[in-house]
């Protein structure tokens, strides 16, 4: 049973977050925004939308390092600002290398850390 939880815990961040979010926010959205508004604004806006996408679920459900449900300040500092910064970094890497696999791997690595900590029962 533990190996099933471990496997699912490692696969979910890949198939529910890293792959679809990088395809949408970098490959599709950022690429189009850059063509219309230029690189800097394209990276900024796609990162802002990427961070904003994470707000509703965290505001309603978060507890722990990502913030506390219902507490806007903790959600901003625990999720939105860090995700925005990660979006800027991933956006820059997309602009520079145009390699979606690098972005998916980095995104997956970032998203997997909390899953591994949870599976290993490591406290915050």
**Poorly predicted segments:** none
- Note the total helix count: 4
**DSSP strand (E) fraction?**
under 5%
End-to-end Cα distance, whole Å, is: 24 Å
Identify the quaternary structure here: single chain
Q: Which structural class matches the secondary elements? A: mainly alpha
Q: Mind summarizing the main beta sheet?
A: none
Order of helices and strands: HHHH
Q: Indicate how many domains the architecture comprises.
A: 1
Explain what this protein looks like in three dimensions.
This protein is an all-alpha fold and 124 residues long. It has one domain (21-120). It is 85% helix and 0% strand. α1 packs across α3. The radius of gyration is 15 Å and the shape is globular. The mean pLDDT is 93.
Notable characteristics:
85% helix, endopeptidase activity, CAAX protease self-immunity, protease, Rce1/LyrA-like_dom
Question: What is the element layout, followed by pairings?
Answer:
Blueprint: H1 2-37, H2 39-61, H3 72-97, H4 100-119
Helix pairs in contact: 1-2, 1-3, 1-4, 2-3
Give a short overview.
The chain is mostly helical and 124 residues long. It has one domain (21-120).
